[in-house]
Amino acid sequence: MSDVQLIEVGPRDGLQNEQTLLSVDEKVEFIGRAVDAGVRRVEAVSFVNPRRVPQMAGAEEVMERVPRLDGVSYIGLVLNRRGLDRALASAVDEVNAVVVATEEFSRRNQGCGVADTIAAAVDVVRDARAAGIATTVTIAVAFGCPFTGEVEPGWISDIVARLADEAAPDEIALADTIGVGVPAQVRDLARRTAERAPGIPQRWHFHNTRNTGYANALTALESGASALDASIGGFGGCPFAPAATGNIASEDLVYALDRSGVTTGIEMQRLVDAAQWLGKALDKDVPALLGRAGAFPAAR
Amino acid sequence: MSDVQLIEVGPRDGLQNEQTLLSVDEKVEFIGRAVDAGVRRVEAVSFVNPRRVPQMAGAEEVMERVPRLDGVSYIGLVLNRRGLDRALASAVDEVNAVVVATEEFSRRNQGCGVADTIAAAVDVVRDARAAGIATTVTIAVAFGCPFTGEVEPGWISDIVARLADEAAPDEIALADTIGVGVPAQVRDLARRTAERAPGIPQRWHFHNTRNTGYANALTALESGASALDASIGGFGGCPFAPAATGNIASEDLVYALDRSGVTTGIEMQRLVDAAQWLGKALDKDVPALLGRAGAFPAAR
User: Is-annotated flag, keyword Disulfide bond (chains A, B) (predicted)?
Assistant: First the structure.
């Protein structure tokens, strides 16, 4: 039992911006290590065009080989009907559709406007539900846009309301895609989201690009979050800030939650070991701090 | 005017554990850069034995040459009467005395027991007050000890009460010396401290060793902190965790505060520039993230 779900997004968002391509074998081992550590929801694959995102190639093969255990749920990122068809054929347990909150980011990242991403997400949720699998819609750049700057929280809550009314996904995720947010924004967006999408569980996605990611995650939890995204080792980064760190790290988040008396059901040391393994596979230093600093108290 | 005081502790705690020794010239430039950025309290020097802490040598020469401006207050760390005499001769504006919360850390770090550090701090405060300068007592390892693990919050508040009763310093600082704390602990200690030392302003000192430092700082502010320690560039580290990061970084803290609508009176970009300068002087990468990721919105 856990007080909050940690969703391991390393296999998807963690790898997506890394230069070194992992093999299918390596991706399967990475996912297996997360599951062995006790993670029960894994964003394992992305059903996007592998020519656009080479790191996400081989999604079907990965899904054929991941350990299928009771209580473990695999999420596939899906942008449209074509992606959903691949997801259904791969027997993912959940799909995560993406709405982009600003026109400029949407056109550059998805090649279409905000309204198109909303319409596509609504369709994905409807069709996924018809196929019997769980659905999330993630609102990207909800805290700020690298191209157009500030994003109005009222605009985000309008998107939330539209998604709740037209799609009623099983979960709404708010994403600080470029790592600019602060806890005051989290509190505000959590309150607005609860008002506009009452009863829909909130999932949050933070990057630690400017050292606010962990404060944001803990604030989201206090504000009623049911799930938090994190990435083993904190790999990832952002194509708009080449030297910046990536997702908040699963092991550092579990440390903070554990010391706060929040149960995750996850073994921190196994995450640390998985991060070291992944660092070797990517030939990169591990951005997470727990592996360097050590657990506290040391004997744990 | 500012909503919270940022105390630049880089010249003291930031440098203290760095291998590369800075010259007096470099230390004076470092302090001048912090003041130019708008910092109004600087922990500039430590009056400890320079044979024990070589990085802190030359405190008197540093204090002779720092810019003396209206509204800028220089703090000297002081462990005993000998240190206080040096501090008074150097015309510091404030002294910071240190109490260590656990016996083992106290004996290894100060060479005496907890009760001795309390008695010494009480004496330093009394004598400094008699000399007309402001006083802080910092309680080190208030969130956990690298040798003996957990530290009971009730024990910390007993120390707080004793300091309030016997010394009544102008400020009490609670220090997470080894970077193990979480926001729930901050809230608990802030409440206990306000109860046991009513009316004495609270200052907090966090390290980001396990990625909880910024969450702790923001929580301290919400819990009534009047001052937060931070170090330009986030240099420092911990002798007990050689690969760990140091103090929370001034620029990253100012970013979080600024985006939260909290005024500090400090120009973030000048801190970023100072951190780059310091990184060159120490021949080290800057641990802070803001210089890598860039401000947001970009045009600010």
Answer: no
Q: Are B148 and B186 in contact (CB under 8 A)?
A: no
Pick B292's closest partner by Cβ from A243, A261, A289: A243
Tell me whether residues B296 and A178 touch, CB distance under 8 A. Answer: yes
Identify the DSSP state of B196: H
pLDDT at A300 over 70: no
Q: Which of A77, A18, A8, A13 is nearest to A42 (CA)?
A: A8
Nearest CA of chain A to the CA of B86: how many Å?
A: 35
Mutation choice for A interface testing from B207, B232, B289 by most A CBs within 10 A: B289
Separation of alpha carbons A214 and A211, rounded Å:
7
CATH fold for the domain made of A5-293:
TIM Barrel (3.20.20)
Which residues, given as ranges, of chain B have pLDDT below 50? Answer: 300
The confidence score (pLDDT) of residue A1 equals: 63
- Chosen for mutation from B147, B152, B210, B264 (greatest number of chain A CBs closer than 10 Å) is B210
pLDDT (tens digit per residue) in A54-91: 889 999 999 999 999 999 999 999 999 999 999 999 99
- Which of A238, A249, A254, A266 is an active site residue? A238
**What pLDDT, in 10s, does the model give residues A235-265?**
987 676 666 778 999 999 999 999 999 999 9
Judge: A209–B293 Cβ closer than 8 Å, yes or no.
yes
User: Is residue A31 within 8 Å of residue A66, measured between CB atoms?
Assistant: yes
* Set of chain A residues whose Cβ sits within 8 Å of the Cβ of B184: 259-261
- Here the tokens at position B119 are 């008695």
Question: pLDDT tens, A3-56?
Answer: 999 999 999 999 988 889 999 999 999 999 999 999 999 999 999 999 888 889
Inspect the interface and report whether the beta carbons of A211 and B256 lie closer than 8 Å.
yes
Tell if the CB–CB gap between A178 and B214 is shorter than 8 Å.
Answer: no
Question: What residue spans of chain A are helical by DSSP H?
Answer: 15-16, 24-37, 59-65, 81-89, 103-110, 114-130, 153-166, 183-196, 213-222, 250-259, 268-282, 290-293
Residue-level pLDDT at B298:
78
pLDDT band at A194 (very low <50, low <70, confident <90, very high): very high
From the list B244, B249, B252, the residue facing A292 with the nearest CB is B244
Q: Enter the DSSP assignment of B22.
A: P
Q: Is B238 a catalytic residue?
A: yes
What is the per-residue pLDDT for B1?
A: 63
Interface with B, mutate which of A210, A250, A257, A269 (most B CBs under 10 A): A210
Give the residue extent of every domain in chain A.
Answer: 5-293
- Which residues from A are below 8 Å from B178, CB to CB? 296
| Chain centre distance of CA A106 | 18
In our burial notation (b when 16+ CB lie closer than 10 A, e otherwise), range B75-97 reads: bbbbbbeebbebbbebebbbbbb
Burial of A262 (0-12, 13-18, 19+ CB in 10 A): middle
B160 touches B121 (CB < 8 A): no
Question: CB-based contacts of B158: which residues, under 8 Å, 6+ apart?
Answer: B196
A243: closest CA among A290, A205, A287? A287
Q: Identify the pLDDT of residue B300.
A: 45
pLDDT at B186: 98
Strand partners, B45: B76
